[in-house]
Specification:
alpha+beta; 5-stranded mixed β-barrel; 3-stranded mixed sheet; 53% helix; elongated
């Protein structure tokens, strides 16, 4: 569509041709000729001018001025969107589908009230990684359900800052207060090695449930299947209490010479006991290494005292069992694979014998089945479960 000319400016030939094409298309929709459509449009404008108490020329000039102002407003919005995209600033979708730039600043009290209430609800959040930090991620549809629940209506009656929600549209408008105040932002799953030549391909990476690496999206839309992360952590009184406790502990350690004598003696005994336990642990680690080195040559494959001592297990599981033989992981896997291949070969040979096939075919079937079992991936895999 051609741009509207400014008041007092003659339209260019391209604009005239575009307007004639538009008039012909509108006339064809109504089953008129272009001349009949222009005459009908003039009559409509004259009737509207009479209602407004203006002459035909005055009303036409007013329409031109309104079209010029709308054109200028659209150009300004397009320039703002382009500048926001170049600066990497997220945008929220406002009413009518227009993109509203998000400007950092003090959050809206209404948005803070909504965020505080939603944080207290069970949105089935999951942990994700955003810019190297762990954040809580949730789906939009659960937040919209919470905003349309009876509990939110009860909270609205108690807190005047909470906006009233009557339907899905009003719930979406209320939810849009969060990205506008930078309390929650829309994210999507990203590849940490995207744009780099290093690292394994995305298909070969291990997928761990609940630990997505996400990135912030430019368009902050509202849809049921979209994901948002919380940037609002709620009241900071817990962090303040922890900081105060750490400060008190540091001051207490600094003023240790001022402590009562009995208290200092008790702390000294406790510190000696802790040092004794640490020394005992190191002594046990050295002894188990020496024991393994001796038994590795005397009684292969070697004996370990507390074989799970340095494994990634719980505290009590680190001391169970008390002893165990050294196991080679590669040999263990090869034994497992050969055992599966042998069993499969026996089954294939028995079936071939029942069918009265030759000995060569039996051997080929056993060999192929054994190789197939060895090539099969026997490693455990973690698969993600689709959310409701």
């Amino acid at each position: 569509m051609a741009a509207a000319p400014s008041p007092g400016q003659q339209p260019s030939p391209q604009q005239m041709a575009a307007m004639q094409q538009q008039i012909a298309a509108e006339a064809e929709k109504r089953g008129m000729t272009p001349q009949q459509f222009q005459q009908w449009q003039r009559q409509q404008i004259e009737a509207e001018a009479k209602k407004a108490g203006m002459t035909f020329e005055q009303y036409v000039a007013k329409l031109k001025q309104q079209a010029f102002e709308n054109h200028q407003r659209q150009q300004q919005m397009a320039a703002q969107q382009q500048a926001a995209q170049q600066s990497g600033q997220p945008q929220a979708q406002g009413q009518g589908g227009q993109q509203v730039p998000i400007n950092p600043g003090a959050p809206d009290p209404k948005a803070t009230a909504v965020a505080k209430w939603l944080r207290s609800q069970d949105l089935k959040t999951r942990t994700c990684i955003l810019n190297g930090q762990r954040k809580d991620m949730f789906r939009v549809k659960r937040a919209l359900r919470a905003l349309q629940s009876p509990a939110y209506k009860t909270a609205c009656a108690k807190n005047p800052l909470l906006t009233t929600v009557t339907d899905t549209a009003s719930a979406s408008e209320t939810f849009k207060l969060l990205p506008l105040s930078l309390l929650a932002l829309r994210v999507s799953k990203s590849d940490p090695h995207e744009g780099h030549n290093h690292g394994p391909p995305a298909k070969q990476q291990k997928r761990v449930k609940g630990l997505w690496t996400v990135k912030i999206e430019q368009q902050q839309d509202v849809s049921d299947d979209l994901h948002y992360v919380w940037l609002y952590d709620g009241p900071q009184w817990k962090q303040k209490m922890y900081a105060a406790g750490a400060l008190v502990l540091i001051m207490a350690v600094v003023m240790f010479p001022l402590w009562p004598v009995k208290l200092r003696i008790g702390v000294w005994y406790l510190s000696m006991g802790a040092l004794g336990l640490i020394g005992l642990f190191f002594a046990m680690a050295i002894f188990r290494a020496i024991l393994f080195a001796v038994t590795y040559f005397a009684v292969p494959p070697g004996l370990w005292l507390y074989p799970n001592l340095f494994e990634d297990v719980g505290f009590f599981d680190s001391f169970r069992p008390i002893w165990g033989w050294q196991e080679d992981k590669k040999k263990k896997k090869s034994k497992k694979g050969s055992g599966d291949g042998a069993s499969t070969g026996e089954k294939a040979s028995s079936k071939a014998g029942q069918a009265k096939s030759s000995g060569a075919s039996v051997t080929a079937a056993a060999t192929s089945s054994g190789s197939d079992m060895k090539d099969r991936n026997l490693k455990p895999r973690v698969e993600e479960v689709e959310e409701d």
